[in-house]
Amino acid sequence: MSLVLDKMPLREPTPAGWFEVVMRDFPAFMQDHASCERKASAMAMSMVNKFPDHEALIEPMICLAKEELAHFHEVYRILHKRGIPLAVDERDPYVSALLKPVRHSRQEYFLDRLLVACLIEARSCERFTIVAAGLEDPELAPFYQRLAREEAGHFRVFLRLARHYFSEQQVFDRLQYLLDVETAAMLAVPLRAAVHQSGVCAPWVYENSFKTICKPCRQKQPKPWLS
Ligand SMILES: [Fe+2]
Ligand SMILES: [Fe+2]
Fold first, then answer.
1. Distance between Cα 152 and ligand 2 center (Å)
2. Which of 33, 142, 193, 198 has the fewest CB atoms below 10 angstroms from its CB?
3. Closest CA to 48 of 68, 37, 38, 62
């Protein structure tokens, strides 16, 4: 058991084909991206609001909220320059699936929220890396390269905080479980031009169990994470 902070904590890579879908509607991808950055900033400040007594959390969360808001501002400026409006928020099934198994007692909730945030940041980092590598736009390619680096810093912050407040064993055990949830959620939502929504038909996630019927197509699926 060891948690390497520099290693991206993801079990499965984004499916091949996601980038192609993104490129078919890049304005929609950027609208979704703007919304993700705004929500990430709000989430960091909600951690400060919910855990004001956890002193080690306050400074990094304020910094994170500011950096995410700066990302939002940058994406907004690019959208504005290209004549693309901000979009109304839609429910993100990927994030909903990750939040579903979050436990309710104060300490368990705290650990789960840190680890869920860590996984969302890690997936964003992976996706921005894919986008940066595939884009030919001279403004956007370096922009997404930098964002990928900064999102990598974010997943490390959440993992470091989890290890500060909880034992290595507690973090490791819960992370293994949430990695299963993240993998299934990442594969379950429909393939779309969005930061987190991608995937092919795959099992749907429920709190403590995995169903083998894919809701969108009603077909039985294998359980790749159990092999
Ligand atoms: Fe960000
Ligand atoms: Fe982030």
1. 8
2. 142
3. 62
> How many CB atoms neighbour CB 141 within 10 A?
14
Listed residue (174, 45, 192, 44) closest to 121, CA to CA: 44
Q: How confident is the model at residue 115 (pLDDT cuts 50, 70, 90)?
A: very high
* Nearest ligand (C-alpha, residue 68): 1
Query: Residue type for 15, please?
Result: P
Model confidence at 5, in pLDDT bands (50, 70, 90)? low
- State how far the Cα of 162 lies from the Cα of 88, in Å rounded to an integer: 33
Q: How long is the chain?
A: 227
Q: What is the pLDDT of residues 103-113, one digit of tens each?
A: 999 999 999 99
pTM score: 0.86
Domain spans in the chain, listed from the N-terminal domain onward: 18-226
Tell how strand 209-210 and strand 205-206 pair up: antiparallel
What's the CA gap between 13 and 186, in Å, rounded? 9
CATH superfamily of 18-226: Ferritin, core subunit, four-helix bundle (1.20.1260.10)
d(CA 125, CA 135): 15
- The ligand with the least distance to the CA atom of 75 is 1
Cα distance between residue 209 and residue 31, in whole Å: 33
Enumerate helices (H) and strands (E) in the chain, giving the number of each. 7, 2
